[in-house]
Amino acid sequence: MEERAITIAGEGVELPILTDHNIHVDITAAAKATGTRNYFTPVVGDELTTKFGHFNIFKTSTAAPVIDHNVKNWNDLAQKIQDASKTKVIILNHARDVHNSFRPFGPARHLSTAGVSTDDWVFPANAMEVINSGSQQTNFMDLFNDWFGMLNHGVHLAPVGSSDSHDVSRYIVGQGRTYIQANDDDPGKIAVDAAISNFRDGKVMVSLGLLTKIMVNDKYSPGDLVPSSNKLTVAVEVHGPAWATADRVCLFANGKKIRETKIDKPRSAGLKWKGTWDIPFPGHDIYLVAMAEGPGAGIPFWPIEKPYQPASTDWTPRLFGSTGAIWIDGDNNKKRDAAYNYAKAIISSSGSNIHKMVGRLNDYDEAVSAQVAALLWKDSVDLSSPDVEGALKGAKPEIRTGFEKIINEIKLLEE
């Protein structure tokens, strides 16, 4: 614990949230013993390790009993977490890793594009890991796409970067990390409750070697709802140390890439890229996420671990950094409406007429089309039927792509 306190201070992790399997972890005594307590504000946490996934929970207390990890399903888990006092954040960890023969977001039980699972369990978390430097994915975008799908399904999750380091030096603590909007003038006295509130609201950025910032209309940042305006001016910055290379930056709307720019000076120290994109103000709510990436090989003093459970023998390490989501109030109703909300309204107003549904989808994007397809599938509608295929003929590409993605994922469920 004393060595861990020193590494936390050395890596500049100012709000370390320590968790381990089914125990409360408090590093305060070790921080005081090593003279590092003024460098950070420790938060007590617990990695609730169940047969149905691992969940980081904080803040907890060493004086309170650990939440019972023997659960029957996510409904049972959600109830036990709710019954635990002062629980603030519940993170779904490494959602694509298999533990106890269970993969939370595995293709055999979860439609990533739509954020829909085969069961009717309550989703028990309010955040999810998109970066875990100690448990990488072969394709780092897989977890981001899962997060996009959950946001489109109306599950507002904060994205999380973590290091899952366990040991002092095998993995670099804080290599994957989350930046939370908070006052850190005195790193040893951070207002924990205020930081956790911003964490839950999605006022965050996540990083693996790069840091990406976003501002919309000169005022709004991750976690905010942008009110109606004539257009959207999206300002993005990419930062990183001189040894980190950033070669491109992208903008996503409802999980779909809508802008991409090559970075001309990828090895600049500090600010590597700064630019703006103007996009039309949408007719319905969307969220925006900016992401930068670059090559991650050949950094001997900052090695990126190979995937924990590889999906392929081919793997190329990447540096990347993502913003949290900024919501755009396209329908001007002063609230965040996900693609799922629009899909439900379209199906309700169309009865069982698939042709009417497809016609109404003309006013929406690919994410809404995917949600309509997933809802129809949950209602036992055959998406490969002549009626559906006929309705999709001549539909705009976004509609067909949304349906096709769901149909392809359903095939994986059935294999």
Q: CATH homologous superfamily of the largest domain, by name?
A: Metal-dependent hydrolases
- Judged by helices, strands and strand pairing, the structural class is alpha+beta
Percent of sequence in beta strands: 25-35%
CATH architectural type of the largest domain: Alpha-Beta Barrel
Summarize the structure.
By secondary structure, the protein is of the alpha+beta class.
Task: Describe, in plain words, how this protein is organized in 3D.
With 415 residues, the protein is α+β, with helices and mostly antiparallel strands. It folds into three domains: 1-206, Metal-dependent hydrolases (TIM Barrel, Alpha-Beta Barrel), CATH 3.20.20; 209-337, Sandwich (Immunoglobulin-like); 339-414, no CATH class. It has helices at residues 2-10, 28-33, 74-83, 141-152, 192-200, 339-350, 354-360, 366-378, 386-392, 397-414; strands spanning 17-18, 43-50, 53-58, 89-92, 110-111, 116-117, 127-132, 158-162, 177-180, 204-208, 211-216, 225-226, 231-240, 248-253, 256-262, 270-280, 286-295, 318-323, 326-328. The strands form four sheets. Strands 9, 10, 12, 14, 15, 17, 18 and 19 form an eight-stranded mixed sheet that branches. A six-stranded mixed sheet has the order 1-2-3-4-7-8. A hairpin with a 2-residue loop joins β14 and β15 (256-262). The longest helix is centred in the C-terminal third of the chain and has 18 residues, at 397-414. The model has no long low-confidence stretch (mean pLDDT 95).
